[in-house]
Amino acid sequence: MVKPHLVIRLQFVLALCISTIFLQGCAQNVLNYSWTDSEYHGPVQGPILVIGVFKDPTVRKIYEDSFVTGLQNAGVTALPSHQFDKQTTEPTTEDIRQVVKQAGASAVLITHLLSQDTKSFEFLSTRYAVGGAMSSDPVYGYHSAIYGVTFGGSETIDKTTDLLAAVVFDVKSEKKIWSAHSKSINLNSMVRTDDEKLEALFIKDMKTHNIL
Fold first, then answer.
1. What is the pTM assigned to this prediction?
2. Which helix (H) or strand (E) holds 108?
């Protein structure tokens, strides 16, 4: 017969393993879709205007600046749209044309969220289970562990999945020449905590398809 304190220890180890696997699986940034206009002969000649479509102007500025830095590090001339467009309301088509003209851009890169989904996962507090598992008494040790877990509370982790789109348009023809979708998984509702990694995926794919 398995001793109670060993059962508690096994439960703790399993919980720890599940938590570890969960956390390891959350640090993900992947490109799950990519398309290129086969008729377009790149790379883009001239500056790329980066437009981030986000409700929060601060998020927009941070994202655009980060993407511009990534493009510049890749040897591409790029400019953030917030330098030219200070509007907080939805811009008209003419507004966008004016911003593109001011920037002297040859291409426009637009990024935006496709969807965002947050799920909460509850884990029993492990510190109580450790104490009970270490006890050699099959009765009091078991009760101590169960009591601690039951009344000691739990820990909650929020897992947020973001689907992000990036699309490049040629200014002269006004046609889409490249697009891609990325998937990122972040913890505790910290949206797009790995902007640089996501942008690096987009930039790598654009280079692969001779957009850059």
1. 0.72
2. strand 107-124
